[in-house]
């Protein structure tokens, strides 16, 4: 299974997390491995549901327990069925955290691929929109936020490409994308998306490089420090 570890998101200006409202979004991340029925939550997601990090074991039942009874669909079924689209998907739900209250969240997730490109799980983010959408239509903000997070995914992928090709670190790779954005007056996410779309135009890699990459992929686990 590909190792897509959970990294809590720090809202940044580059990703437009406040929609220009001056309000910061609370974002938590999660991961679900199907075969083991194992869930992982970031600290932010525990807080969103009203818990201290590690206080409870995340599970499908826990998610359902906190879903608002007036919900239009089952939150877990939405997550599990969403990966069938083959692309990033988003769903809108309301939850009741421990201690009461009502929170409006949008969940944006994508598939985690395992051996032979089989779907091994899902990884994604829960974004608290409660304060942001007060008095506004939920559907508008759901679509807007989904677009922003899809842009974030493209930026991260483009950074990875530049890091691999030019042996840059993450900051320098993003700096290169931002420089082209500023020079051309085009959004960073659009620069990144177009770069990814045109990767197929590059000439094929040499057989020697391909063998090195294959060897790296097949043996990398042997060099991970034991904990």
TrEMBL record:
Stretches assigned to the ANTAR domain: 135-196
Name listed for the protein in its UniProt record: ANTAR domain-containing protein
Organism from which the protein derives: Nocardia pseudobrasiliensis
Region annotation (Disordered) ranges: 1-20
GO molecular function list: RNA binding
InterPro entries per UniProt: ANTAR, CheY-like_superfamily, PAS-like_dom_sf, WH-like_DNA-bd_sf
């Amino acid at each position: 299974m590909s190792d897509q570890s959970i990294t809590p998101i720090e809202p940044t200006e580059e990703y437009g997390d406040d929609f220009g409202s001056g309000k910061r979004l609370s974002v938590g991340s999660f991961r679900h491995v199907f075969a083991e029925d194992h869930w992982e939550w970031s600290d932010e997601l525990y807080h969103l549901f009203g818990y201290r990090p590690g206080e409870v074991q995340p599970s499908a039942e826990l998610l359902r327990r906190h879903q608002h009874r007036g919900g239009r669909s089952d939150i877990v079924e939405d997550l599990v069925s969403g990966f069938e689209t083959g692309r990033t998907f988003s769903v809108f739900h309301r939850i009741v955290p421990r201690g009461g209250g009502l929170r409006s969240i949008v969940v944006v997730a994508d598939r985690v691929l395992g051996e032979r490109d089989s779907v091994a799980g899902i990884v994604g983010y829960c974004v608290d929109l409660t304060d942001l959408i007060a008095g506004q239509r939920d559907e508008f903000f759901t679509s807007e936020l989904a677009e922003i997070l899809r842009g974030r995914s493209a930026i991260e992928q483009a950074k990875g490409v530049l890091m691999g090709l030019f042996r840059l670190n993450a900051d320098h790779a993003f700096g290169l994308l931002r420089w082209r954005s500023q020079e051309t007056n085009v959004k960073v996410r659009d620069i990144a998306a177009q770069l990814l779309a045109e990767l197929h135009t590059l000439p094929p890699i040499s057989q020697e490089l391909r063998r090195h990459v294959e060897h790296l992929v097949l043996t990398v686990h042997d060099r991970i420090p034991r904990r």
